[in-house]
Amino acid sequence: MSATLDLTASELARGIAGRSLNPVETLAAFLDRIDAREGQWHAWAHVDRDGAQSEAKLMASEAGQGKLRGPLHGVPVGVKDVFHAEGMPTLANSQTMEADATYADSGVVAALRAAGAIILGKCETVEFAGMGVPPASRNPWNPAHTGGGSSSGSGVAVGARMVPATIGTQTGGSNLRPASYNGVAGFKPSYGALSRDGLLPVSWSLDHPGLIARSAEDLDLIFRAIAQQPGSPPSTPKKIGILRDFFFETSEAGTVDVVETALGKLDASGLATDTVPLPELFKAHQAIHHLIMSTEMAVYHAPRLHQKGDLMSPRHKLLVEAFSLVPASYYLQALRARRMLRDAMLPLFAEHPVLAMPTTPGPAPEGLESTGNASLLTPWSLLGFPAATIPCGMSENGLPLGLQLVGAPGTDLTVIAVAIAAERVLGRLTLPD
């Protein structure tokens, strides 16, 4: 059973399709792992044990007859607790949600089921996936450190080998950051590539469903299986660009050293790299992002504040009240500035289809009050560009660091292809026991 925990989603899918693995036994291994480790890592808001076991039995019978529902047949997947899933509560780490409310499957969950995935349960999240109260999710590499956020449980569940893949979300840095902190692969697709139906929003203009998995190959498998807009076919870039302005300048020295070493290995392997400068307008990206996200978050939660404000955490309530004071003219100017920045950034991809940089300025910080620094991820959430992360080494304190790869809108498969190529050079991490 323990060997099953080390398999990637792709390896599990191939094993089940080839009948060398059984969905019931596979699921049992992950449920045993959850039973043994959940009390330590706190990755799950809800585990649908009975529903998952029932599905696994049915899928085992189907696989035995050579009938596969899709490319993910029998593979367990976790889903961030801001996506609706039939038969499961959506609580979003908030007392304002109804624990006994029922919902139809969100678009992403429906796509996962259609592809044959078993929805194992809901993963912990920062309150409403925004800037509210973080969950108790701990980093499996060191429980004194955060597992990241806001897709906290999604990252921890994969990093702690409780499930081979999860769905998260990213509005700022909420999907790639926990993937990086937990030593696994992550992908934030182009805006609109994955369905947002049935997803509790933070910011309609910036929300991206995302993927977290054991390997870059898994990202390719899952994205192709559930994307509503997969974009253009993958290409093989002759060279990738390195964004040293801002990204390297604001990163810790140890992170820069690890990423530079990784890039040197890629260059030596034949994936040529050179430095690409950023446009002047890039300096405004943080202000633009903050204005759009905070304004839209306040608008969405205004009715909740009025109806159930006494049940909101003081932290989330204060943010909603403060953000509601943003003048409409500021919001409209921010939308205009985003279009201008997008136009200024697109030429960077003309000669370098994929750009590389650190995923986070440093490793996961100590404590659970903060989910870490999202500054190197926010630009791509703002612009809707696809971005992936793969592990590229370890910090001096023994925590994982990630290499981030970014492409132009619609080039999701190319970004993933480069991530796969880079992972073959850099290798994957052996996850903690």
Give structural attributes.
two-stranded antiparallel ribbon, 433 residues, alpha/beta, 11-stranded mixed sheet
Spans of at least 5 consecutive residues whose pLDDT stays below 50 are none
Spatial separation of the terminal alpha carbons: 14 Å
Assign a percent range to the helix content. Answer: 25-40%
Q: What's the total number of strands?
A: 13
What is the overall number of helices?
Answer: 14
Arithmetic mean pLDDT:
97
Strand order in space, largest sheet: 1-3-2-6-8-7-12-13-11-9-10
Q: What is the 3D form?
A: globular
Gyration radius (Cα, Å) is 20 Å
Please trace the helix and strand order, writing H or E for each element. Answer: HHHEHEHEEEHEHEEHEHEHHHEHEEH
Q: Decide which structural class fits the backbone.
A: alpha/beta
Biggest β-sheet strands, sense, barrel = 11 strands, mixed
**Percent of sequence in beta strands:** 15-25%
Short characterization:
With 433 residues, this protein is an alpha/beta fold.
